[in-house]
Amino acid sequence: MPGIGGIEACRQIKQRHPEIPVLILTSHAQKALIERLISAGDQGYCLKGIAAATLV
After folding, report:
1. Which of 7, 13, 19, 21 is the most exposed place for a label (fewest CB within 10 A)?
2. Are the CB atoms for 49 and 29 separated by under 8 Å?
3. How far is it, in rounded angstroms, from Cα 14 to Cα 25?
């Protein structure tokens, strides 16, 4: 993601609008990254490549 990155974007969204749920779409499945996303406030994540029907 160009610019600030997904983790920082999630932090900023949750700081400004804590009521907005955040779902991360990522190509990374490393446990450490997922833990950082969750600690930044996201409610979940999906790996890129997921079927559109599954995402919906």
Report:
1. 19
2. no
3. 16
Kindly list the structural domains of the chain, giving each domain's residue range(s) and its CATH number in brackets, ordered by start. 6-55 (3.40.50.2300)
The pLDDT tens digits of the residues spanning 45-56 come to 888 888 888 888
Cα–Cα distances (Å) from 12 to 36, 51, 54, in that order, read 14, 28, 28
pTM: 0.68
CA distance 4 to 15: 15
Strands (E), 1-56: 23-26, 44-47
Nearest to 22 by CA among 39, 50, 49, 51: 39
How many residues are given for the chain? 56
Please report, as a single letter, which amino acid is at residue 4: I
